[in-house]
Fold Reticulon-like protein.
Amino acid sequence: MAEHEETKGESLMEMITEKIHGGDSSSDSEDEKPSELKAKIYRLFGREKPVHHVFGGGKPADVLLWRNKKISAGALGVATAIWVLFELMEYHLLTLVCHGLILTLAIVFLWSNGTTFINKSPPRIPKVSMPEQPVLQFVSVLRLEINHALFVLREIAMGRDLKKFLAVIASLWVLSIVGSWCNFLTLFYIVFVFLHTVPVLYEKHEDKVDPLAEKLMIEIKKQYAVLDEKLLSKIPRGPLKDKKH
């Protein structure tokens, strides 16, 4: 009888344990549901990674997203000073470089010769040289990017991707309009300020921006479908690539 009661007690404990584990598994499945829903949330440009990873996740991303406020503010301040010098004060690059070199050489020359009168050692001017490897790496990366851009333009010009063709034409048209409003330096400064303000603002308010962007993209796709049905589908296209059967 005692053994029978012990086996009953053990079986009862096993049933309780299974119920507890079953409850845990159900709660785990419930916890997984919100994560699945979060994964299905629309993100701008279809990104799956955080904004910091989209920008490379290194020091440039830290600067653009104001992780280090001193460096970000310093970069924006230097860019603003350069724009004010060349655009508002109408300074020329060659004049600025020459004046900067004249001032630097004059200060170092007077300092080097003045130390002989006050019995102090002359200033130590370090030897400055441009390293070869980083320059070669930069040129190599630049060459690859230019070749990729030329390849994309060739593919678009051959009429193989109508969406890309329209996007590039629209972008170039907008860029030409913006270029007629301002010169290259001002355009570069606007892009620089844009990169230092819009990404960090988007990162802070992405939960509000992404739903609006989703609605906008749905509307754009609807309008494009109507345009494609009525006009674009009737335009003859270039030769397509051979399809693999």
